[in-house]
Amino acid sequence: MCVKRAKNIHHIFELVTAFLALKNGAQLIVTPEQYPRQVIDIIKKWKVRKDDLESLKSIVTSGAPIGETTMQLCKKRLKLQDLRQAYSITKAGGICSLAPYGQEILKSVGILMPGLRFKVMDFGMKETCMPRQLGQILIHHSHVETPAHKNPEQVKAAFVSEFFKTGTVV
């Protein structure tokens, strides 16, 4: 299997994905910049075809939620054994939750990674939300990045009782 990546790796999920691909014997193609001509040349050189996806068995997505209908269609058309979602945020130390291998609930981002705690707070940051109530995800973990120079105003703006405000609305 050969993984083609013609973009910078600067987000945590891209880095984790790159390491997983390498661990599984893939070859990465990484360029400092991406230009259309360069991407076309890479595709030609490595003989990548849009229909040459038979070796693809598993896909994990992160960065933005994908609807369940789209996930089902993708899994069926690509004949995947595994398709799942993860929730990741670089400032919170990486992947925060990951659906287990083979999970059938495609719209879920799965279970929390060890050592993490989540809560969903109302937008005023006063109360924990009830199930299915709109709010913001907050994360507690020892690896959460604190604001530069631990400026008290920045810390207050980014945290509520040691929980990091992700900005992610659910």
From TrEMBL:
<keyword id="KW-0576">Peroxisome</keyword>
<dbReference type="GO" id="GO:0005777">
    <property type="term" value="C:peroxisome"/>
</dbReference>
<dbReference type="Pfam" id="PF00501">
    <property type="entry name" value="AMP-binding"/>
</dbReference>
<dbReference type="InterPro" id="IPR000873">
    <property type="entry name" value="AMP-dep_synth/lig_dom"/>
</dbReference>
<dbReference type="InterPro" id="IPR042099">
    <property type="entry name" value="ANL_N_sf"/>
</dbReference>
<feature type="domain" description="AMP-dependent synthetase/ligase">
    <location>
        <begin position="41"/>
        <end position="144"/>
    </location>
</feature>
<protein>
    <recommendedName>
        <fullName>AMP-dependent synthetase/ligase domain-containing protein</fullName>
    </recommendedName>
</protein>
<dbReference type="GO" id="GO:0016405">
    <property type="term" value="F:CoA-ligase activity"/>
</dbReference>
